[in-house]
């Protein structure tokens, strides 16, 4: 029996969003949704045909049941999710504003903050090809930080490639506190995703090459420079640079998760570095065009077709006419 393609660990919460981009303090109603970096990634992978498992923790409450039902609805395997009878499910609220959307978290003492390293002992995770983690989990509590440390150092899922998205959230911990922890965790992973802007904030670096020198440990470091390009820097050999797809941004939340999912989907298909970055850009572009944390997923065949375009056509690609798969 083969293991899952992807295992991911982290918190997923209920999301409250004002209708019509109204500021939170003027909203008459809130839409209820679900969001979490790790399950965003897992959901994309599941909808692209991969066996993706979320090992999380929710409260024994209506919000927890909502979260599990929603994540399962994206095709993610939720059989490893723990239900905590003594702690609530976390939630966050989006506050749209002309200068950008702010996010208010209500997750202190949540069930997910009580996750620990034993979550990775579940036999249902054995044989996983990829274990995907993020810096968000490390910020939730001391035992969550120890969980991530355990995952990247002790490698409890033998044979799994360890993927780590730095994903610094200033609202959870300031850069001065987060910087050394996230550096240590990232440098022990096999594959790292980091935005150039957050690398600059955390570590004072200015270029993808600077990031690579700062993180000598991973096999590959992927540096995302927003609307400019993404660069994959292997430990040995030349870097691969792929320009971003031009897109009109509706909301940036979730684009990084979509990029990681696209890259990992291509990696699981053993595609070349350029294709991996292009799959990442394509899913990120779709995420940027919607208000939710995740976007409809193009068919894998269409992603492969677009990723194979000649370089001159890639830089002028227009996604406005694309009609992704309706599954969300």
Automatic annotation (TrEMBL):
Domain Carbohydrate kinase PfkB: 5-299
Signal peptide location: none
An MF annotation (GO) of this entry: kinase activity
SUPFAM superfamilies, alphabetized: Ribokinase-like
Keyword vocabulary terms for this entry: Kinase, Transferase
InterPro entries named in the record: Carb_kinase_PfkB-like (IPR052700), PfkB_dom (IPR011611), Ribokinase-like (IPR029056)
PANTHER family per record: 2-DEHYDRO-3-DEOXYGLUCONOKINASE_2-DEHYDRO-3-DEOXYGALACTONOKINASE, SUGAR KINASE
Family to which this protein belongs: Belongs to the carbohydrate kinase PfkB family.
Protein known as: 2-dehydro-3-deoxygluconokinase
Organism (species): Micromonospora citrea
